[in-house]
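Hi all, long-time lurker, first post. I run a small reading group and we've been trying to get comfortable going from sequence to structure in the token notation. Rather than ask abstract questions, I figured I'd post a concrete chain and ask someone more experienced to write out its structure so we can walk through it together at our next meeting. Sequence below, copied exactly:
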Amino acid sequence: MSSDKDEEELVLVPLSREPPITVDRREWPEIATGTYRWQDGDQKKGILQEISLVLKVRQHADGRAVVYGRFFYCDILKPRDLFLVHHGRFVEPGMDLVAAIQAVGGNLRTAMTEIGGPSAEEARRVSGVVLETIQELPPTRL
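-- Answer (accepted) --
Happy to help. Here is the structure in token form:
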């Protein structure tokens, strides 16, 4: 029987074309993250619109990695405009992490533009999040 402590260490990683996987955050530390968040509203009415975009990379000591991201959009004034999209990719040792980050970012960008919620300008913010994530990767030793 597992304890609550053990379960708290598991991270659910959604993959784009496969069932989600779980990894232990102690064995798969986060090595890079890129984020973008925008909110609109006021103090009396609260948050009326929100856009959130997150890309993460976790890597095991054996070189395997997972790249995954989430896009969230809501407009309180338009209850039908609530979207949560996940994409992710498993990366074998020696495979190109940068290409995996770009692919997951591309999947998120496509999802953002297809739903018609946020503007095209907001969808372009994915490029900045992709770049931020790539720049946070550990340096390559030459």
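A couple of things your group might point at:
The chain is about 30% helix and 40% strand.
The mean pLDDT is 85.
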